[in-house]
Design goal:
- The chain is built from 9 helices and 14 strands.
- The chain is an alpha/beta fold.
- Helix 1 crosses helix 9.
- The two termini are 34 Å apart.
- One of its GO terms (cellular component) is ribose phosphate diphosphokinase complex.
Length: 357
Amino acid sequence: MNVTKGGLVIFTANSNPSSRELGRRIAERLGVELGKVQVYQEANRETRVQIQESVRGKDVFIIQTVSKDVNTTIMELLIMVYACRTSCARNIIGVIPYFPYSKQCKMRKRGSIVSKLLASMMCKAGLTHLITMDLHQKEIQGFFNIPVDNLRASPFLLQYIQEEIPDYRNAVIVAKSPASAKRAQSFAERLRLGIAVIHGEAQDAESDLVDGRHSPPTVKNIGAIHPSLEIPLLIPKEKPPITVVGDVGGRIAIIVDDIIDDVDSFLAAAETLKERGAYKIFVMATHGILSSDAPRLIEESAIDEVVVTNTIPHEIQKLQCPKIKTVDISMILSEAIRRIHNGESMSYLFRNIGMDD
């Protein structure tokens, strides 16, 4: 049954068949057919997009999930947005559950803030609205000059914990680093559970140590400054031996984070929790990128189960590792599309969500 007003078109911008599954689920929930479009790579690796139906005066929703070739994914989206713009679409809304390059949202030495560049490219191409989910840093919304709805996957993950982990009342929510403590606290408060934080020698990729603006040089270069100036150097950071703040002995440990890609830090956290007496270990994350050998490493690790949403297709990884489970979030994306198209308030989708969530 069609639950929307007329003038709605939904496209999937990904040429990868496995990446179109989320678009099909959303269209099915809304009771509409996916729009007709051809997206393919030519022999010279150029991306070509051909819209095969009229979009004049319509609300166009372009669903783009991130495939293994992230740069091709971005070009497909940009070209399709521009094609809809030149075809006189009324509104062009991007539905990008996982925003690519979201980890590159801070200045690193002589690098660049790539997520800001990507936001500018999307706006310039003609995007008028963005729907995404669990941005790595909420401040990324400020990179856009268009409305951004940053939806949350936590209600679905919390529901999974309550329904699929029988003894979850004996669990403790774990942050694998102090940077993840706010997310862990949010889960713990909603489930009325305790919290534990792992802190110690494992180097966090997001730490200030890799940021050239905060890390002092190892050699004091007196010749580079005026002889009369003696600028004091910061004492280099040194992490203490790894410790777990909180009791996990005889408990189920549930590690929560927004992204699971390089799994080394998760494996190290799982080993530490096992040593501290946790008898079962779950990992919950919104975006399961699971690059390279991640499935094999998870299968051989102390982790009992990894639960991710279908913001990113990972069917191949699931075949390689039965421990990986999927939670479907097409319901909230389809409801967001319906509300935006019908001009309804989005506040219902953000109920009980605080500033720290």
